[in-house]
Amino acid sequence: MADIKTFHLPDLGEGLPDATIVEWHVKVGDTIKLDAPLVSMETAKAVVDVPSPYSGKVTKLYGAAGDIIDTGAEVVDIEIDPNAKQRAEAEATGHHHGPKKSVGSPAPDDAGKVVASDDGGEIESNGKKADREDEGTVVGAMVSGNHVHTEQVSTVGGVKAVPAVRALAKKMKIDLSRVVPSGAGGVITMKDVKDAAANGSAALGAAPVRSAAAQHLAPTLPEPGPAPQRTPVSLAGKPVRTSPPGSQAMGQPEQLKGVRRNMARVMAEAHANVVPTTIVDDADLHAWIGKQDITARLIRAIVTACKTVPALNAWFDGKNLTRTLHPHVDIGIAVDTDDGLFVPALRNADVLDGAGVRAAIKRLRSQVEDRSIPASELSGYTISLSNFGMFAGRYATPVVVPPTVAIVGAGKLSHDVVAVMGGIEVHRRMPLSLTFDHRAATGGEAARFLKAMIDDLGLPN
């Protein structure tokens, strides 16, 4: 009797309960070797190549491209080849199967002063380099022998592909900008590159021709005819559609995936587990001398307030009713993207000067945009900042994400009429909103925190 093993989706290192199938590297009936690429899965931050845990013949695939697979659910059935190399039952696969770490898990004791370089990440404690505990986990670990590899999708010139695909395209002299993508989210796969090489449709240096992509995007249209009659009701007087809903049509339900799916979970958890209260006020910037970096001044003001009122630079465990005050200030900077909300951590903001803050933020934004940011940089911050005023809005009620206690919202700058001794003046002012978890901090602490920010922002430079 054939020995058939079912492979279940492991924790891919994101701490998320599911992942989306991007591309199968095998089909039913194929023979696969141990540790060979089995399937590409999209998590909230990267596309991960999952290796085969067995050697044998593929007998069943549990899903197609675009399907969402829960962590621990069936992925594939493989008929074991008794004559091929197999991994021992107790041998590690390179994927994390232990209990998921919460971003609220306290880090080891920070006994000494925390020091960091401007590029963030590396710290010193008591004069020695120390690695702060990673609050996240490894993104996209794929094992081949004893080495772990990471494959993340990057976008260059509008082309989405993992490094291995780009390397193959370079080797085969294929122009990726002319390859028709078949992966989820417009990602170019290995098969796309091989197909393009086989049909010669995307060779480097070839004369411009009507490519397969152009034909796909601009098919031959039929001769125009009379416009179809659209009516809101049927002959029976009931609301109807005048045409079948298409999978790409606006107004149709779509399954949230990747970053947006994770964002929805995080926001729901925050709503269920935090007792939020918001206070607002305005910082008067009239005394500023010359042009200044607004974001750097905001970061400095938050650091000053954290030193003045440490209660808001903290983590709170609502189940055990414990509070952790932090000697360092790691600020989560909300970054809005088309894929959803990212909150990378600006590490050790309390030891960075203005130039260091600007360089670190530029690095984080760049990593977010090309989806190369490590998972460890998206967790473990001690307080958050949402600078929504760069778009619109004066005041808001930003969401506090556990285990943090507070988030600062900075609104759009305005010129307001202000009463002064002997008359009125027009001053430039910054609206500030501070949302805090009222279980962990008092209204007085929040008010003093906001006042400390306003006082620092009111300084000339």
UniProtKB/TrEMBL annotation:
Residues 85-94 have a biased composition (Basic and acidic residues). Residues 160-197 form the Peripheral subunit-binding (PSBD) domain. Residues 85-135, 218-255 are annotated as: Disordered. It comes from the Bacteria. PROSITE patterns: BIOTINYL_LIPOYL, LIPOYL, PSBD. GO terms for cellular component: cytoplasm. One of its GO terms (molecular function) is lipoic acid binding. Residues 4-79 form the Lipoyl-binding domain. InterPro entries: 2-oxoA_DH_lipoyl-BS, 2-oxoacid_DH_actylTfrase, 2-oxoacid_DH_E2_comp, Biotin_lipoyl, CAT-like_dom_sf, E3-bd_dom_sf, PSBD, Single_hybrid_motif. Its EC number is 2.3.1.-. Keywords: Acyltransferase, Lipoyl, Pyruvate, Transferase. It is an enzyme of class 2 (transferase). Its cofactor is (R)-lipoate. Pfam families: 2-oxoacid_dh, Biotin_lipoyl, E3_binding. Belongs to the 2-oxoacid dehydrogenase family. Forms a 24-polypeptide structural core with octahedral symmetry. This is Dihydrolipoamide acetyltransferase component of pyruvate dehydrogenase complex. It comes from Luteibacter rhizovicinus.
